[in-house]
Design brief:
membrane; six-stranded antiparallel β-sheet; six-stranded parallel β-sheet; Elongation Factor Tu (Ef-tu), domain 3; single chain; 4 domains; alpha/beta; 2Fe-2S; iron-sulfur
């Protein structure tokens, strides 16, 4: 029943939001800012109320006259502010109800959100009570109706038993002590409201309490226009308990319950109000979860932030990331703008409900979702577009402190940053060396993140390469090198799957960083390194992975030489590197594959590995073929 009701209400919201998106754009759609609009209306209420309180009298004989002076003698200030005060109260009740109804429609009130839902229900009642109380302070005929109807409604309760209405039978029974009490309630309730509003948003990561400036201005101007076109005025003259008020204009936003006092039995009305309130309190737990239903937390890995967080059951990817300080791109947070679009690399998520213009069917088929709508169903890996505002890329000026030739065409270069500077990076990332004319050449970190005193690069001489030729022929220790970084999304995923590394020539550099980082972090996952080279001389650091294999039981090293020379006396594996992997693994299902090297090698390897069972979302590479913003180890020169 609840699901069916949600579906109906959601249909109306989806169509209304789509219409408003076309009219105002997704950034200024008021449906996406109902909560902050409620906050803004409260600020208007507080500001206008403070002004009115300065000039208003709270004595029973002076209240009405003081309000009339405010309204007519200074219509250009007090009169307008009185109208804005009333209309902002109506507006706040309306937007709060829409805000609550929208969260119900989109099923965003269960699980950990119960606290926000409960505080929201309390806030609606408090604002409603403060609004009804405000009518009494005017002390006109409408105020008389409100006071008498409230007294008669409360009188049916056993604790009062008909005693309240006696205070309003005769005019002389009403004294200034009543107005002192009413004023105290009208000042005290908003203080409780603002405190609860603050509590209400505490569990919303990076919550805003003000709408975008254009919306705030539009709301204010709307109330100003209403104040000028239809000003709020006192009704029927001063309250007189000897005369029953008739012909009053009713406020259906704030007074509908009091109208029902004379339509239905007051006690039945109490049962209805209390029952509705209890039902709203219980909604987050209705219907009850079936016994054994799993609501455990899931692990969520974000790239390129290289951060792993926990996601609560039913929590959106965006909220989970923001709650744990991941700088994610977002704007509307309601599935309307598409700014928080991301790709699910691994795991299963529920895409949620969103506007079709924010995420096309083609994008959804490619594994893309909106982080503000999608909820995680199991451990998942997410890749998103990093905006300029959240990027940690910066430029550095380093000095060459050591150069070591590892092979005839491979040079190890150690760079040192100025005293006090270090670069934080994730194993598998790379830097762009900046040439004099602004061109850039990409090289992976060969050192692990925990050894950050130097930046280690393993540079292969590329025939005709501008920068690599400079390294081998002219670079010397003490030279200055400018670079930017860290860059790239290539890094170990958070899982327990066995890992197969495929390195081609100097593709060993990022693999070295990743493996040494894995050892440092104590990872016990099985790791297999297949290092493929054309000639034995290209295997420039064979002793290092051999030592790893001796020291770590979970690590295995398989060098593969494609064309060994007879003089090499090579007894190891030969041929293409992927052929050795296929021979050793009848099925690659359940494994993670990391390929590092030239574009041509990656393009040749992955189709064969996928044919052997490697999963599409579990094949990763630092080569250009996977992403327009990835960079290969080898510079394109």
């Amino acid at each position: 029943m609840i699901k069916f009701l949600q579906k109906i209400v959601r249909w109306f919201f989806m169509h209304a939001e789509n219409t408003f998106n076309h009219a105002f754009g997704d950034k200024m759609n008021p449906f996406y800012h109902l909560g902050t609009i409620s906050f803004w209306q409260f600020w208007l209420l507080a500001g206008t109320g403070l002004y009115l309180y300065i000039f208003a009298d709270t004595g029973v004989n002076d209240a009405y006259e003081s309000v009339e002076r405010i309204t007519h003698n200074q219509w250009w200030a007090g009169g307008i502010l009185r109208s804005i005060h009333r209309y902002a109260t109506d507006g706040m009740i309306l937007t709060m109800l829409l805000h609550m109804l929208r969260h119900f429609a989109y099923d965003r009130y269960r699980g950990f959100r119960w606290f926000s839902w409960i505080t929201g229900v309390v806030l609606i009642w408090l604002v409603y009570i403060a609004g009804v109380n405000g009518f009494m302070l005017v002390w006109d005929k409408l105020a008389q109706f409100v006071v008498v109807a409230t007294a008669e409604w409360f009188d049916v309760l056993p604790m009062f038993n008909g005693t309240l209405i006696r205070n309003f039978i005769y005019q002389e029974n009403v004294n200034s002590r009543l107005f002192t009490l009413l004023a105290f309630i009208h000042l005290g309730a908003p203080l409780i409201v603002v405190f609860l509003m603050w509590i209400h948003v505490q569990r919303v990561p990076r919550a805003h309490i003000n709408p975008p400036r254009p919306i705030a201005i539009a709301v204010t101007l709307m109330f100003l226009a209403l104040a000028l076109v239809k000003p709020v005025l006192s009704q029927g003259g001063e309250a007189d308990m000897s005369v029953v008020p008739t012909g009053i204009e009713f406020d259906w936003f704030e007074l509908p319950v009091l109208a029902l006092v004379y339509v239905v039995d007051p006690m039945n009305l109490w049962f209805g109000v209390i029952g509705l309130t209890l039902l709203l309190y219980l909604v987050p737990w209705l219907p009850p979860m079936r016994r054994g239903t799993h609501q455990a937390e899931s692990t969520l890995a974000f790239y390129p932030a290289h951060m792993t967080v926990t996601a609560r059951y039913g929590e959106t990817l965006l909220d989970a990331g923001l709650r744990q300080d991941v700088d994610l791109p977002y704007e509307c947070r309601n599935g309307g703008c598409g700014v928080c679009k991301c790709t699910v690399l691994h795991g299963e998520v529920d895409p949620g409900v969103y506007q079709p213009n924010a995420l096309s069917a083609e994008e959804r088929a490619q594994g893309k979702v909106l982080m503000c709508c999608a909820t995680v169903l199991e451990d998942a890996v997410i890749e998103y577009e990093e905006s300029a505002a959240t990027s940690a890329i910066r430029e550095y000026a380093a000095r060459v402190v050591k150069m070591e030739r590892l092979a005839p065409d491979v040079m190890r270069v150690l760079l040192k940053l100025p005293e006090g500077q270090q670069i934080a990076f994730t194993a598998g990332q790379y830097i762009n060396v900046i040439l004099e004319d602004g061109q850039r050449r990409a090289f992976s970190f060969a050192n692990p993140p925990h050894e950050a005193e130097f930046v280690e690069l393993q540079i292969r001489l590329m025939p005709g390469g501008r920068f690599t030729t400079h390294v081998f022929e002219r670079m010397k220790e003490g030279d200055k090198v400018r670079f930017e970084g860290p860059l790239g999304n290539f890094s170990l995923q958070e899982s327990e799957r066995p890992i197969v590394f495929v390195a081609g020539a100097t593709g060993f550099a990022p693999v070295k960083s990743m493996i040494e980082d894995a050892f440092q972090r104590g990872l016990k996952r099985p790791m297999y390194l297949y290092w493929g080279v054309r000639k034995l001389a290209d295997l420039y650091l064979p002793d290092l992975p051999k030592r790893w294999a001796q020291e770590h039981a979970n690590f295995h090293f398989v060098p593969v030489v494609q064309e060994p020379e007879p003089s090499d006396d090579w007894t190891g594996r030969t041929g293409l590197v992927h052929e050795a992997i296929l021979q050793d693994f009848p099925s690659l299902g359940g494994h993670e594959i990391y390929a590092c090297g030239s574009v041509r090698m990656v393009e040749a390897v992955f189709p064969h590995l996928k044919a052997q069972g490697a999963e599409e979302g579990m094949c990763f590479s630092d080569a250009f073929v996977l992403s327009a913003r990835s960079a290969a180890l080898q510079p394109k020169e």
